[in-house]
Write a structure and sequence with these properties.
The structure holds 2 protein chains of 2 kinds. Chain A is of the alpha/beta class. Chain A has 11 helices and 14 strands. In chain A, strand 7, helix 6 and strand 8 form a beta-alpha-beta unit. Chain B contains 13 helices and no strands. In chain B, helix 2 packs across helix 7. The longest helix of chain B has 27 residues. Classes of the chains: A alpha/beta, B mainly alpha. At the A-B interface, helix 2 and helix 3 of A face helix 1 and helix 6 of B.
């Protein structure tokens, strides 16, 4: 992939008795927000731990910003900001001192650290907490401190492992907004199993299941790939109280239609009946023609789309 | 190099943020004081000896250091493993050996403070007589070296586990073993222990320091054992990669 800032090739990780990754390959483009999805134990965190050099791989190759990760672990770590799942911080330290410590560990002078912290504190919403001991902070603020240390050196790549886990709904919205903003200046890899989060924040998704990549693409692409069943939702105006049985029978006569089932009836804004049509091909034009010929008013005619949860479920259950 | 000092500074601050440091320092001062003044480890009573010497202190202090220093080092890596902060630390652009050296240097800060506290003993001795200052300095150099070696051994056991108590017990056993058990075992095994074997024990290597003699061979010995423990700690920290 042109413009790839991370290239992962045939990544394998074997623990004593378990193979966590069985040969995963994908690229991450510059400025992309990539969602790494998968059920618990699928291999997401293992992938992230390898990318951040916390653990090494059994085999495979990873290039970060043109550098071989395994040959240059220190240099690649300098290009990455990492928020681990646990967001473990030193509870005895004051937020300010902790961020200075992280900055100095990344090679900045104290003055540079102070400047960077001041600039960053507003962005991550930490201004009023900078002088407080970490052990007194709520989970949401601890998460912000974790994010601040990950962004302090303005890294090219930001890796966030379950960044909103354990946060309250308001905090989740704020952190998601922040992640979206990060995508303007950084390449972001985000691991989560909260699917709405992916829809709201990610440009692309890689789904890992049982240690293997089972899907890769934008949400729209994944929806398109799976939407080959030609299921339609058809609403027809009908003022009788017979659940539209004559309509169902007529719809079932249309060529290529396999099955028509009654979904529900509704009275507003026009009394109508809704059917689910399963066909061998897209029969929307045939239904429109049937309705016109029969003098039926179509209230609703749409292709049934799969939500991300269904996509995820199908992919991970098929694999 | 800067990263080592940053880690050392944090570790020192964190050590004195915990009550263990104060308890350990108090135990060290009280225990060495009792042994120094009253010879309760079987040594000579300072008041009866009527000699202006710190020999009783240098004879007894390694015992106490072998017990208290593993209590100071037990948290160094074990706590980071348990709380998860190790993941963030080792994913910073810093090598594992720098992390280990930084942590060792930080804990050495405690050792220096503990040894400075015992300066009250030479002050007492100097107030009642004229001790050999060179011997006192030599003894303190010896205590600093053997203390550093104990710290390195304690740090090594702290990398083996995420349980601080287990790290402490293993560190204690290792320090006490090297201080006294090796000597006892060699004497038990041989009627006339070979010189080469006797030279391997901490007690033999420390004996010259206790007399105030700084022999470069003894210095190299303790530095070598410390370096081996640092290397083993680094290896243990790295082992996360192939587990």
């Amino acid at each position: 992939m042109a413009n790839a800032v991370i290239q992962i090739r045939d990544l394998v990780k074997e623990y004593d008795t378990v193979t966590a990754l069985t040969g995963v390959s994908f690229d991450v483009k510059q400025g992309e927000i990539l969602g790494l999805l998968g059920p618990n134990g699928a291999g997401k965190s293992t992938t992230m731990k390898i990318l951040t050099s916390f653990i090494s791989a059994t085999s495979g190759a990873v290039t970060v910003d043109g550098l071989d990760l395994f040959a240059n672990p220190i240099e690649t770590r300098a290009r990455i900001g990492y928020l681990p799942e646990s967001t473990a911080l030193y509870p005895d330290m004051v937020v300010w001192d902790y961020l200075v410590y992280c900055g100095e560990m990344r090679g900045f002078s104290r003055e540079e650290c102070h400047d960077r912290i001041r600039k960053l504190a507003g962005r991550v919403g930490l201004i009023e907490k900078l002088k407080e001991p970490i052990h007194t902070l709520s989970k949401g603020y601890k998460q912000r401190v974790g994010l601040a240390q990950a962004l302090l050196h303005n890294p090219k790549i930001v890796i966030l492992d379950e960044p909103t886990s354990g946060l309250d709904p308001n905090q989740i919205v704020e952190i998601r907004q922040l992640i979206k903003e990060l995508g303007k200046d950084h390449t972001v890899i985000l691991s989560t199993h909260i699917l709405p989060e992916v829809r709201q924040t990610c440009d692309r998704i890689v789904i890992i299941h049982k240690g293997a990549k089972v899907a890769d693409g934008s949400i729209e692409q994944l929806e398109g790939n799976l939407n080959d069943t030609h299921e339609l939702v058809v609403g027809i105006a009908w003022d009788k109280d017979d659940r539209g049985e004559p309509l169902r029978q007529e719809l079932a006569q249309i060529a290529s239609v396999r099955k028509v089932s009654h979904s529900h009836g509704a009275a507003l804004p026009i009394k109508h009946q809704v059917f689910e049509v399963d066909a061998k091909k897209d029969v929307r034009s045939e239904i429109a023609k049937w309705a016109a010929d029969g003098g039926h008013a179509i209230i609703e005619l749409r292709r049934r789309t799969l939500d991300l949860e269904t996509i995820f479920q199908r992919i991970t259950s098929e694999a | 190099m800067k990263q080592i000092w940053v880690i050392a500074r944090r570790e020192l601050a964190s050590t004195f943020d915990s009550p263990i440091a104060y308890i350990a320092a108090t135990v060290f001062l009280v225990a060495t004081g009792l042994m120094f003044f009253f010879g309760i480890d079987g040594g000579q009573d300072f008041f009866e000896a009527r000699q202006a010497t710190l020999r009783p202190l240098f004879d007894s202090a390694p015992w106490v250091l072998a017990v208290i220093l593993p209590a100071v080092t037990m948290r160094l890596v074990a706590e980071e493993k348990k709380t998860g902060t190790l993941e963030l630390l080792v994913t910073l652009p810093v090598s594992d050996i720098k992390i280990i050296i930084g942590k060792l240097l930080g804990s050495m800060g405690f050792l220096v403070v503990a040894l400075v506290l015992t300066m009250v003993f030479p002050a007492v001795v100097m107030s009642v007589g004229s001790p050999d200052v060179g011997a006192i300095i030599g003894g303190y150099i010896g205590l600093f070296l053997i203390g550093t070696t104990f710290l390195a051994l304690g740090l090594m056991t702290s990398t083996w586990t995420h349980n601080q108590i287990v790290a402490f017990i293993l560190g204690l056993l290792l320090c006490v073993f090297f201080w006294t058990a090796t000597d006892a075992l060699i004497k038990l095994a041989f009627d006339r222990p070979p010189v080469a074997l006797r030279l391997l024990t901490f007690k033999t290597q420390f004996a010259a320091f206790a007399k105030g003699v700084v022999d470069i061979r003894n210095v190299v010995y303790f530095l070598t054992v410390t370096a081996v423990a640092v290397a083993a700690s680094t290896y243990s920290l790295k082992s996360r990669n192939w587990r």
